[in-house]
Amino acid sequence: MATQTGELGLPVRPLRARSLLMLASVLIAAAPQARAADTCTEVRVMATAGPEPEFAAKYAKAEFEKATGITVVFDTVSRDIQTQRASAEFVGNTGQYDIILIGNQDKLWVGRAASADMHKLLPASDIAKLVPRIRDLATMDNGKLVGIPQYWNTTMYFYRKDLFSGAKNKSEFRSKYGYDLAPPTTWDQFLDIAEFFNRPPELYGSFISGISWAALYDYYKALFGVGGEPSDLKSNTLLLDSPPSVKALSIVQRLAKVSPAGFRTQSFFDGDKLMQGGKLAAYSNFSYIWSALSKAPDKYAIAPMPGPGGVLAAGFWWAVPEKAPHPDCARKLISWMLGDDFQTKQMIATGNPPATSSVMHDKDATSKIPSFDAYLATADRTRIINVAWARELGEGISSAMSDVVSGKKTPEEAASWLQNVKFKGRKPLE
Amino acid sequence: MGHSRRSPYRRRWPVGLIFVSPALLFIAAFMVYPVSHLIALSFHEYSPLRSADLRWVGVGNYTQVLANQETYRSIWASIQFTAGSVVIEMIAGLAGAICLAAVTLRLVGRFGSSLNRLFAGLFILPLAAPTVVAAVVWKLLLDPEIGPVNATLSTTIAWFTDYPMVSVIVADAWKTIPFITFLLYAAILSIEPSQFEAAKLDGANAWQEFWHLTLPSILPVVAVTAAFRTVDAFTKAFDIVFATTGGGPGDDTMVFPLFIWRTAFSNLHFGEASALAVIAIIISGLCGAGLLFFIRSRPGR
Amino acid sequence: MKLFAKRAAPKAAWALAFVIILAIVALLPIAWMTLSAFKSDDEINQIPPTFWPQTSTLDNLLQLFTQFHFGILTVNTVIVSFFVVTLSLALGGAAAYGLSRYPFFGSNLLFHAILVTRLVTPASFVLPLYLMMDSLRLTNTVTALVIGITVLNLPFVIWILKPFFDSLPREVEEAAQLDGLGPIGIFWRFAITLAGPGFKTVALFSFITAWTDLLIPITMSTRPEGWTLTAGIVQMQTGFKIYWGALMAGGLYLTLPSFIIAIAMQKALTRGLRTTF
Q: Per the CB < 8 Å rule, is C131 touching B37?
């Protein structure tokens, strides 16, 4: 049978042979990579988009790969679908990644899913390096260590030193509010200061994030600050309509009035840009931004968050799925990550306090970070989000915040809506 | 259609089945079976973040989903998007096709036909571009600070924040209007030229020609196109929204397909998402049934 | 003969103006994207924006391959497109031919049943498909993508091809049958070449569908080895930094091939659209 050419100029082959060929090639293309014994040549990390994972990726490629010859691959995941990606790894049937960067809000569901217990994966000597407080935060009630914090991260108050020390500002503030202008120790003071400095459009008093994956942080900062908790794990109930929660929502409402418009689709990264551009008088954010702001010590200063309650901790933790293809390599990378060299370089590059005690107490290293004692002062107050479905909670809170800010609901109504309508019947640990 | 024709192959009817069976098996395995699994799943609770088990809940998912305000907000967002985009696209597409025909039918010679080809090429371009590319480009164009639209208008409007639905519709319309123009233009071209000659001899001016000749001739095509676009805009609005606003701000642009996807893959509530998915299939089934009925009822098809 | 008929001149001018506006609106974003693809990120972030690049750079294109995995994404997309087109034509063409030429009891009903599956919302369908692929351990593979996109494409293919086959003259086949060819032989020798234009149209549409699909790759795969270009470009918006230059370069990269192929098959496209309605 001579080969004929069809209209497309391609030879027309017999049907059966062609489809067999096709089937074969499809199957070959699909064959999952042979799972050889863990020869440990590669480690894949799923990293959420952010400055610290970026630093880790760069440094690991430069130093770890050179030292061990193991290839390191960091795949960046966008923030709004991070939960989809991470849950596919912990819940699905195939493991693609060796290390997943999770946030503290993921602790409860990752802990209960198919993730490795760090106590079992890492030698005790590595675990002992961690600052005890962070290690405890990452530990479940049953003792399982869910992830290894890459760094220590708290929310801090960043403000414009030049504005705060201006004589005119000081006297005006004193006469208006009755106390001296200084970094706030309570949330009411925070709001007073923000309202005082709100002079749009050149200067805004503060900044809150509106986009759903970041909005909940602002609520929690206020909630923890006034002494509240999102849930009571012992009784497994939500506390979304508690008085601190209502107060937190009214704080958010007041904050929104002194934030630039357009925050509904913005995150704290946009707030950073504004602060660095001189458009914000003060705001609260995670500690990473201090590395940029501390370069202008006359302009910016850092202080602990107002209280009297707790402070939102954050930061990426490194968790390992049970189905990780190369757990040995994962262990090696995490051990390296806990080393003094990485932790010190990271602290200086990103401005975050380290995760290990040795670097935390290394005066030579920490003296390179201006006002490091501000971090130490906050250390014991740190709290994490204790709900197993934080992403959904974040969406609900973002929606409540939006209603409160636009005036559709009062803080009481919004809090009640959260507890009794939106998340009716839900439990923090389901 | 097929039975009445006297076919010498009637006796060998299994042959037809043999030709159809590979496709049939494929669709059965990868469409029918999953959808039936979907329906079954909609009667269970399956949230892998809570537990790996399936739990029978009967119509529990449906009642929960139908009692949820967000479901209706999502459907409303879909309706807004569908209505807005179909109306704009059909009107602009029709106008474009008429004008294009008016121009090209009067063009003669080699210059004319290469101009023809040029326009055709130009209008194919948005069709060939993936929707996500349109989304990304419009995100830049409408950026409040660095986007050329604001620069030209001397404003700093954050389009995707303050007017999300409008911005999404604009991005979608940009991609679809040329396609609609192309389609209707092809339909206009298929009207016999002799009819135009007859109209001119009768002394019809351009408006009469349009109203009494062009429009009635292509009305069937217009109607079918509009119907298809409506069904598509309702059920397939995923890409453009995902790549621009992600459903936000809040859930202002959370169109129904995106809502289903987020419930399933971001929140991992597969039971609820299955109920929503079944509802979506029912809605599009009704629309499609209406569409089919409409096509069948047209005379002369 | 003049370029425009005299009486229609004023209306033609309006029409021409409208068409030109439409063409500019269709073209301008693409032009902006192309120009921005060669601007550095700093220049793109300038306020007010510039039109022509002040200093052109190829860095964005390079970044696509070094940072955003465009190498493997391209390979994936090409493979997926190829197999989707091949499978769609093979399965769909055979099915359309069988339904058209060898009708059997219930074949008309079957045809309409297949059409009905076109109405399934892709977002609904992808849910159970993901669960199915996950249990088969086919997530993050090209196979899952091919299967998902083909099954959504098949009803469309059959819907287009069946009328094509219906319109072919039967005499050719009857003559071939007298020559002793079996049904499959007839299918290969004549039906395919005669229905060539139809196959071309369907191949083009299938290619565009596979090349531009987002939902299936982004659901089935969690890492670049399992994505296509569209999933890759959407992932470039991370929420942390926006690499505008790379995004525009990526958009250009994605659009160019399908644009070229669409232009090449322009005739088939027009014919296909005409016969559809």
A: yes
Name the closest residue on chain A to residue B264, using Cα atoms: A84
Report the CATH architecture of B77-234: Orthogonal Bundle (1.10)
A93 contacts C134? CB cut-off 8 A = yes
β-pairing, A282-286 vs A153-160, is antiparallel
Residue B264 in contact with partner chain C when CB distance is under 8 A? yes
Chain B: residue whose CA lies nearest to A400: B250
Give the Å distances, CA to CA, from A225 to A197, B242, C240. Answer: 21, 35, 26
Q: Do B48 and A210 touch (CB under 8 A)?
A: no
Per-residue pLDDT band at C269 (split at 50, 70, 90): low
Half-sphere exposure of B134 (CA within 13 A, CB side): 27
d(CA B9, CA A90): 56
pLDDT band at B206 (very low <50, low <70, confident <90, very high): low
Domain boundaries, chain B: 77-234
Lowest mean pLDDT segment, chosen from A209-223, C197-211, C261-275: C261-275
**Which fold does the domain A42-149+316-351 belong to in CATH?**
D-Maltodextrin-Binding Protein; domain 2 (3.40.190)
Amino acid at C46: Q
Residue A321 near chain C (CB below 8 Å): no
- How confident is the model over B160-201, as pLDDT tens digits? 888 999 999 999 999 889 888 888 887 887 777 777 777 777
Q: What structural domains and CATH numbers belong to chain C?
A: 70-276 (1.10.3720.10)
Nearest to A91 among B48, B158, B160 (CB): B48
Q: Are A131 and A347 in contact (CB under 8 A)?
A: no
Count of CB atoms within 10 A of residue C61's CB? 17
Domain with CATH 3.40.190.10 in chain A: 42-149+316-351, 155-313+385-422
Average pLDDT for C94-99 = 86
pTM of the predicted protein model:
0.87
Contacts of C86 in chain A (CB under 8 A): 22
ipTM above 0.90, yes or no: no
Averaged pLDDT score across all residues of chain B = 83
Average pLDDT, chain C: 83
CATH no., domain A155-313+385-422: 3.40.190.10
The CA distance from C251 to the nearest CA of chain B, in Å, is 5
Low-confidence spans in chain A with pLDDT less than 70: 1-39
Residue of B nearest to C238 (CA): B243
Distance, in Å, from the CA atom of A195 to the CA atom of A203, rounded to the nearest integer, reads 11
Task: List all residues 6 or more positions away from B122 whose beta carbon is below 8 Å from its beta carbon.
Answer: B178, C23, C26, C27
> Which chains does B contact via 3+ CB–CB distances below 8 A?
A, C
Residue ranges with strand state E in A112-185: 148-149, 153-160
**Measured in Å, how far apart are chain A's first and last C-alpha atoms?**
67
For B83-105, how does the pLDDT look when each residue is reduced to its tens digit (9 = 90+)? 999 999 999 998 888 888 777 76
- State the Cα–Cα distance between residues C167 and A24, nearest whole angstrom: 34
Distance from chain centroid for Cα B47: 31
Other Cβ atoms within 10 Å of C28 Cβ, number: 14
